[in-house]
Amino acid sequence: MALALPNSLFASHRLRQSGEGEFRLTEAFRASLLHGSETPLPAALPTISHSPLHELPLLTHHLDGVLHHFLRLGHAPEMIDKLAKRLVDGVRRNPDGYVAASTLVPHGPLYTARHALQCAILLVLIADALKFDTVLTHELTCAALTMNVGAVSLHDELNHQEGPPSTSQRQWLDIHPLISAAILREAGVPLGEWHQAVLLHHEKRDGSGYPFHLRGDAIPLQIHLLHILDTVSAKLMPRGYRNRIPAKKALATLYATPEEPVDGQVSGTLIKLLGFYPPGSFVELENGEKALVVHGGQQANAPKVIALHSPDRLIDTADESMKVVRAITVSVDANRLSRYESFWAEST
After folding, report:
1. Minimal CB count within 10 Å: which of 37, 143, 195, 243?
2. 105 DSSP 8-state letter
3. Does the pLDDT value for residue 150 go beyond 80?
4. Is this structure's pTM higher than 0.85?
């Protein structure tokens, strides 16, 4: 199927096609994107923190600035390249810590940047488990960080909007993969895995995705993976109008939509890596204790936890008397978050 610009005035007023799968911004639309922003320009990539719970908010603010000013910066692709390398290295050193940070640390108003970072964290984990090569993993991490650069303000806005998107919001959402890919091209990102993953990250194997309605094997496995992580991550993150959906329920949706087939290798690996109670989740145990999940276990439903009233004791919930009964919600403020940092802190 040819990757052609959608036949709509909304799309043609904003984009033009310069080749197969290559889209550019119209001059007028590009000028509108360059017209100021209330978001501060990004500071330099912050010094590495040895606590993922401290590191993630710093990276979120940095990425938010890069996404909002991508076309103004002149070196945005290089900034994303450095951030991706930093994130890949961090996740490989401390996978449970970065998953916990993406679960525990509030995102505040910066939904789009935090969602991108959570997707990138999960992507590194599953790409390594599936033995993707180093270059592909890096390119896909860059794609996860920038897939919504063409609608960053809109996604932040929708995070607090309870009702469905308006007509104009829906039109923008429908072509935001094209806008994002066009912004990357305008900024100098070459055609390749990074560009293609951003362009196709909303395609679904049943043909109901957008903007090209690709089907089945026309969607490469690595891009199908990014789409699944985008969907699951959106469920795992709280929105302005709801709490986050428990991981067990969010992961169950991978099997609950037979009309949108999910690759079994992808779904199985994701469940094995995250478990039903990922690090950073709160749970209630069989004995009534409330606990914080610190590490995964051998089984998806049996993580290793710390009891909230006795944080010096690591509990293996594979023990029947200490098994997890259910996921619970616990409010986490700055003071409580700082007390949890030591559970995943890296040695200096």
Report:
1. 243
2. S
3. yes
4. yes
CB atoms within 10 A of CB 150: 27
Write the DSSP string, 148-194: TGGGHHHHHHHHT--SPPPHHHHHHHHHHHHHHHHHHHHTTPPTTHH
Centre a 10 Å sphere on the Cβ of residue 297 and count the other Cβ atoms it contains.
Answer: 17
Residue-wise pLDDT tens digits, 167-204? 999 999 999 999 999 999 999 999 999 999 999 999 99
Classify domain 9-274 at the CATH topology level. Hypothetical protein af1432 (1.10.3210)
> 226 by DSSP, 3-state: which?
helix
Q: 3-state class of 282 per DSSP?
A: strand
296 three-state secondary structure:
coil
Residues of the chain with CATH 1.10.3210.10: 9-274
Integer Cα distance of 53 and 98 in angstroms:
7
